[in-house]
């Protein structure tokens, strides 16, 4: 057990200068907090659902009231633009409202007709859930988990990414200000190496992680070793099929929006644009124009559409993926050069001629780099899209809606497939992936059911044994 007191140092990615530092918890302190949160579960699980909903609506109101403050915090710690920061805070608030409104229906007992004895399915909370969350959407990723989890009657502890310590503490403060009991939601200020000790502690019932494939493999192994459920939302290399009947200028605008969400630092950002040969050249020309509209600028200025990457190290990793792809034959159609100035800057970049064996084809590029891949026809495009270890989101851009729906529904190996729109999360839609993009679902009724005991109850009027198979 690590008894050292860690310190968390924020860094402004726009300038690479140190920001505020925050004291952390020792492992012993973190475990003590987790155990208090588990103790709070006894009272919270029996709290009236209408009262939980009142607090959750109040959390949404707190988010809206402090929106400007939280936007600045995200900009300072991970470089998010003000426009995207405002949208993120509002999305969190709307998510709180959604579960406050719908949790009662989602958790309602369901009668089962057994032709005699009374039978039902009840949804009951599991306990204390550990959330291990990333930096790229430092508020949304947490609230996406927390709103349904708390409304279900669970308590929660958060281990946030180390580069957004201020955001981690601000989220705890939101729930406190909204009137939630003190230990229903707590933040653990610990480094990643101490997560295992928390997972293995009896205070924790289950784990939710959003992050890299490597982090998911590690947490899944640790949780599995102590027979605890986990939900994993991992990386993605989302493929968008551009078919010959698509409106090419419109398709390019959708592709650019898909690629450039959060500066390209998103698991569900479009990354591979698989274009049938007859429209590939026209699509490349339009995509360069659409991507070129995302000019780098100060994330604190209203007009900025592309801020810095989250760190200089992350930017350098992105650039290496680009240069390695070019060395293997990819063509730079836009961008692809590191600006000569301090900070974690990288321009909107388009690569053409991308093929298997290149990082831009095979790996997740977590930045503003669009890869254009040529396909012979629809079948070849589907093959290329599915030839990936990832399966989070996918898209089909076509003028034939029935064709697009068929491909999205039946052909693409992904947890989400959108036709003629860019993939995004929504409180009303289940969110999650397949293959190396993880398992389990967040949002909608599926999300609230991930961390409940789906309990069968049967009541027979007279005591009697019933034979049959197990």
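Sequence proposed for the structure above (470 residues):
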């Amino acid at each position: 057990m690590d008894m050292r007191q860690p310190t968390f140092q924020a860094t402004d990615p726009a300038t690479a200068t140190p920001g505020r530092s925050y004291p952390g918890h020792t492992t012993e302190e973190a475990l003590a907090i987790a155990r208090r949160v588990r103790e709070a579960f006894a009272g919270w699980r029996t709290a009236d659902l209408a009262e939980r909903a009142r607090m959750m609506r109040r959390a949404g109101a707190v988010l809206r009231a402090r929106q400007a403050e939280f936007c600045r915090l995200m900009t300072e710690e991970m470089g998010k633009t003000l426009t995207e920061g405002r949208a993120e805070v509002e999305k969190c608030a709307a998510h709180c409202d959604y579960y406050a409104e719908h949790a009662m229906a989602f958790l309602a007992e369901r009668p089962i007709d057994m032709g005699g004895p009374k039978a039902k399915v009840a949804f009951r909370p599991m306990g204390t859930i550990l959330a291990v969350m990333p930096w790229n959407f430092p508020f949304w990723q947490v609230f996406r988990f927390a709103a349904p989890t708390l409304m279900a009657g669970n308590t929660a502890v958060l281990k946030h990414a180390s580069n957004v310590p201020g955001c981690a503490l601000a989220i705890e403060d939101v729930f406190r200000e909204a009137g939630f009991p003190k230990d229903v939601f707590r933040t653990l200020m610990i480094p990643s190496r101490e997560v295992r000790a928390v997972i293995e502690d009896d205070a924790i019932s289950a784990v939710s992680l959003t992050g890299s494939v490597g982090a998911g493999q590690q947490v899944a192994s640790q949780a599995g070793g102590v027979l605890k459920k986990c939900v994993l939302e991992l990386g993605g290399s989302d493929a968008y099929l551009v078919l010959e009947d698509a409106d090419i200028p419109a398709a390019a605008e959708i592709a650019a929006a898909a690629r450039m969400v959060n500066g390209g630092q998103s698991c569900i950002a479009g990354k591979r644009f698989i274009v049938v040969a007859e429209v590939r050249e026209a699509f490349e020309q339009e995509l360069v124009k659409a991507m070129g509209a995302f000019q780098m600028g100060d994330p604190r200025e209203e007009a900025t559409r592309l801020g810095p990457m989250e760190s200089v190290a992350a930017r350098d990793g992105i650039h290496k993926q680009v240069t390695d792809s070019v060395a293997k034959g990819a063509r730079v159609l836009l961008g692809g050069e590191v600006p000569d100035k301090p900070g974690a800057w990288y321009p909107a970049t388009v690569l053409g001629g991308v093929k298997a064996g290149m990082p831009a084809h095979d790996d997740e590029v977590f930045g503003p780099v669009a890869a254009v891949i040529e396909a012979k026809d629809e079948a070849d495009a589907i093959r290329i899209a599915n030839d990936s270890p990832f399966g989070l989101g996918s898209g089909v851009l076509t003028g034939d809606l029935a064709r697009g729906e068929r491909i999205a529904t039946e052909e693409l190996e992904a947890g989400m497939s959108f036709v003629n729109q860019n993939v995004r999360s929504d409180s009303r839609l289940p969110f999650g992936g397949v293959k190396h993009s993880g398992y389990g679902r967040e949002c909608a009724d599926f999300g609230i059911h991930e961390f409940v005991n789906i309990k069968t109850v049967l009541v027979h009027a007279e005591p009697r044994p019933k034979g049959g198979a197990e």
